[in-house]
UniProtKB/TrEMBL annotation:
Alphabetized UniProt keyword annotations: Hydrolase
Domain L-asparaginase N-terminal: 22-204
Name the record gives this protein: Asparaginase
Gene3D superfamilies recorded: 3.40.50.40, L-asparaginase, N-terminal domain
Species this protein is from: Nocardioides yefusunii
UniProt cross-references to InterPro entries, sorted A to Z: AsnASE_II, Asp/glu_Ase-like_sf, Asparaginase/glutaminase-like, Asparaginase_C, L-asparaginase_C, L-asparaginase_N, L-asparaginase_N_sf
Pfam families: Asparaginase, Asparaginase_C
Ranges where the Asparaginase/glutaminase C-terminal domain occurs: 226-343
Family the UniProt entry places it in: Belongs to the asparaginase 1 family.
């Protein structure tokens, strides 16, 4: 891990008949404070202080806290998340009831999704963060941390995989999305809605997410690079042509984020055909909900045309999640011809 801080573990005092929850802190706004130069905020608040700011935690669980990173969430890497999954596995195998990750909200959904792809234990894993810093009026971090620990300690969430808890709502890792730059209510699950909530100090889960079998990825396996190409009205084929010509080295795959159900202007189709001949290309949708289409629109650049050209529909996965999935698939040796099957297994709900 690219840790920018010494890793320490501390145990909050608490009733030792309560479940143990392992808390891993990565930074983000939940741990941010104003800089002394007055230039905004940055993550400096240590996990011991986050725990100390929520006295109610000791009534819920024995919290063992580890400062893993102290970074804004755009600095968290998939490699960090893979390492975190291994630490969490060790923690629950040693008896923890569940795990909580605190991090910045900007990439919270990617951490949650990648952990969910890899998570093969019954114990719940909960990712949380905050939109306001601890010193801000109406700081949301303490309530989010309490909610996350409550869910992680609960029997209710066992077997539900990785969840995100924010604003007293429980979201599935596959669907949660940060949909506002600054509002405390930034998190939504488009298409599905939250699957549960916190009420009167307990976790309530109305729905249990359907999850594919976990992927086994060794901790030190490098993740091949996959680029996302977003398409809009009147998009030029220039970027795709550059990829075809090899102008961008080291690209092992591409996610094409099409408009609507997965469509592009016809002018992009020749370059896409050439690109598919070089690397796997996954077709996602920029709409943010639903499934990528594959049998609906038959015009050039439509979903029928693109899938016939060899693009692999991303199913329910948005571009960011499709990118992580393709990186993991390529890392575990999924062959070119198996990518479609792999997405059918990991990304569809039927
Ligand atoms: N609310 C937040 O945590 C945003 C912050 N920029 C981060 O993701 O680290």
């Amino acid at each position: 891990m690219t840790s920018q801080t010494a890793q320490t573990t501390s145990t909050a005092a608490g009733d030792n008949s309560l479940p143990v929850v392992e808390l891993f802190a990565l930074g983000g706004t939940i741990a941010s404070a104003p800089r002394t130069d007055g230039e905004g905020v940055s993550p400096t608040v240590r996990v011991e202080d986050l725990v100390a700011a929520v006295p109610g935690l000791v009534a819920v669980a024995q919290v063992r806290a580890t400062q893993v990173l102290q970074v804004p969430s755009c600095e968290v890497t998939p490699g960090d998340v893979v390492e975190l999954a291994a630490r969490m596995r060790a923690a629950v195998d040693a008896g923890a009831a569940g795990c909580v990750v605190t991090q910045g909200t900007d990439t919270l959904e990617e951490t949650a999704f990648l952990l969910d792809l890899l998570w093969d234990r019954e114990a719940p894993v909960v990712v949380t963060g905050a939109m306001r810093t601890p010193d801000a009026p109406g700081a949301d971090g303490p309530a989010n941390l309490l909610g996350a620990v409550t869910v992680a300690a609960s029997d209710t969430a066992r077997g539900a995989g990785v969840l995100a808890v924010v604003g007293d709502q429980i979201h599935a890792a596959r669907y949660v999305h940060k949909a506002h730059t600054s509002a405390p209510s930034a998190f939504v699950s488009p298409g599905t809605g939250p699957i549960g909530w916190l009420v009167e100090g307990r976790a309530a889960l109305a729905l249990t997410p359907r999850r594919p079998a976990a992927v086994h990825l060794a901790e030190d396996t490098p993740l091949p690079e996959v680029l996302v190409v977003r398409v809009g009205m009147g998009e030029s084929p220039a970027l795709l042509s550059a990829l075809v010509s090899g102008a961008v080295p080291g690209v092992a795959g591409v996610v094409l984020e099409g408009v609507g159900g997965g469509h592009v202007p016809r002018a992009l189709v020749p370059a896409l055909r050439d690109l598919v001949a070089r690397v796997p290309v996954v077709l996602a949708s920029r709409t943010g909900a639903g499934e990528t289409l594959s049998r609906s629109y038959g015009y050039p650049g439509g979903d029928v045309d693109l899938t016939q050209a060899g693009l692999v529909p991303s199913g329910t996965l948005d571009a960011a999640r499709a990118r992580l999935t393709l990186r993991v698939a390529l890392a575990v040796g999924v062959e070119r011809g198996e990518v479609e099957d792999c997405f059918r297994r990991l990304a569809r709900t039927d």
